[in-house]
Fold:
Amino acid sequence: MIRVTLPAHLRTLARLSGSEVTLEITGPVTQRSIIDAIEARYPMLRGTLRDQVTFRRRPFVRFFACTKDFSNEDLDAPLPEVVANGTEPFLIVGAIAGG
Amino acid sequence: MSGVRVLVGTRKGAFILTSDGKRERWEVSGPHFAGWEIYHLKGSPVDPNRIYVSQSSGWFGQTIQRSNDGGKTWETKGNKFLYDGIAGTHLWYDGTTHPWEFKRVWHLEPSLSDPDVVYAGVEDAALFQSTDGAQNWLEISGLRRHGTGSRWQPGAGGMCLHTILIDPSNHERIFIAISAAGAFRTDDGGKTWRPINQGLRSEYIPDPNAEVGHCVHRIAMHPSRPQVLFMQKHWDVMRTDNAGDSWREVSGNLPTDFGFVIDVHAHEPETIYVVPIKSDSEHFPPEGKLRVYRSRSGGDEWEALTKGLPQRDCYVNVLRDAMAVDSLDKCGIYFGTTGGQVYASNDAGDSWNAIVRDLPAVLSVEVQTLL
Structure:
């Protein structure tokens, strides 16, 4: 069971009450497989994390886990075991931007 | 009992204002989609409870929402806006080429005959259509491909398709406008298009017969006379009597002919409204006085409407999609400002009241007359 934390605007869009969702993923737990699982479970979030045409991460969306920024890491690289077994959440964060 | 529903899109959410036919007391619902930019929301003329919303965010991109109950509840619809084929390039600010990239939906225009059909004007400029209530979108690519698309260039606000007008007497005829490419028309439901910019003059375009490149801010039409269009261009208020084949200037005695909005009285096709803005470098009313100007002669001769509007220290802007009219008698006129006020007149502009005054910056105003 994977734990994923979503930013507030996306929780509202997906009509979620808590800050965290849990997902079952078969196969390797990677950034791509997590995003695929989120989009499958919550179709209203399609296009909000990554572009639907290019599949590039939206510039102001960042991915963290275990205090590390994975945003620019290989999407298909396995994530740490503590994320894969649900001990640590995978954090999707709206970047602090503005002024 | 008749009533009015005003749909307001702002930088931080949507608001729905309702009143009875007197239009004196207003109830405010919202913010809907709090924190998101709502460029536009508009109801279907066939089914007024069907409302389409463009919801977007610099973080999370574009989303489309739809209500089937007049804005009480919402459902998220499709947001995949994929340019048809190879998107190609247009001109960038510096004259170099730039690939077409979808950024957001500026304007949603529901069909006049089918509540499931809706058009979307997007940035980078293109026209999309959904025939299933906004679930799936297909580009009407004849517009970008008619021949001038590679010469289109963005205005300061981006290269946006912001105006979509469907001819009520012939739904195959559609007018659109793009900043800063100009106005275009199809007579065959979108298969073929042509620029309709003859007669427009823009200081920054040396060729007086330039097909494209004009920064059209807004076009308005009265449904009884779809061949007559009124345009607020970057500078100049313009008019055509032949569906855009040629335009003439009708700025007349306006204090400045720069501005964004323009609209037509619901029952008087020659009565039109603009809000003059000082200049392209100073986006606020001249002299700090917020004035709507009305012409009862289809242009050229204008009168200032000031009763109830701030006449000192007012430095707001009124953006291109932020004026609308209702169809009650007397005609109601509505506009929203970047200062968060929505002003309404229930007497065709003779007097005004702020029906709400502390919203986020207003991006769009639409009105539904409920009978």
